[in-house]
Request: fold
Amino acid sequence: MKTNLPPRRRENSGFSLVEIVVAVGIVATVMVALLGMIPTGLNTVNEAADTMAEIRIAQQILGEVQMADWNDLDEWDSKPFYYDAEGNKLETREGNKVRYTCRVEIEDRLVIPPQHENNYTKRVVVKVSSKRGGSIDFSENAPPKEYRSFAGLSVMTVNDDDARGL
Reply:
């Protein structure tokens, strides 16, 4: 027995124009929000890289100062140092290659109670800036984030003491 049924029409076969426009609008809104976060993310990554390089440079200089002869410490005071983008030391300020600038400050007086003060320690402050171009203001009145300070101590060793005849 054969029946002749009329073919069924598919009324709901696909998306309407309104549904497509709404979907595209939602996707566009999300994409705009995500694209707006890219510069912020890149700035955060750059700041983190600068911070790590500055710390590495400061540790290197503090180590060199602590290994220096006690009588030669004054040669380090207020001396500028220049580094490239990879953190390699440059001998001179070579145009566009300079990425980090730092300065060493040697202080005879420590910020400790007077009863513990002696003449055999010096405070070493390394100021490192990742500011590009122009001169860097390493003073106490410098704008925020102009540079970072790292402090350490240089202590006279027994050999230095013997060399001075003390």
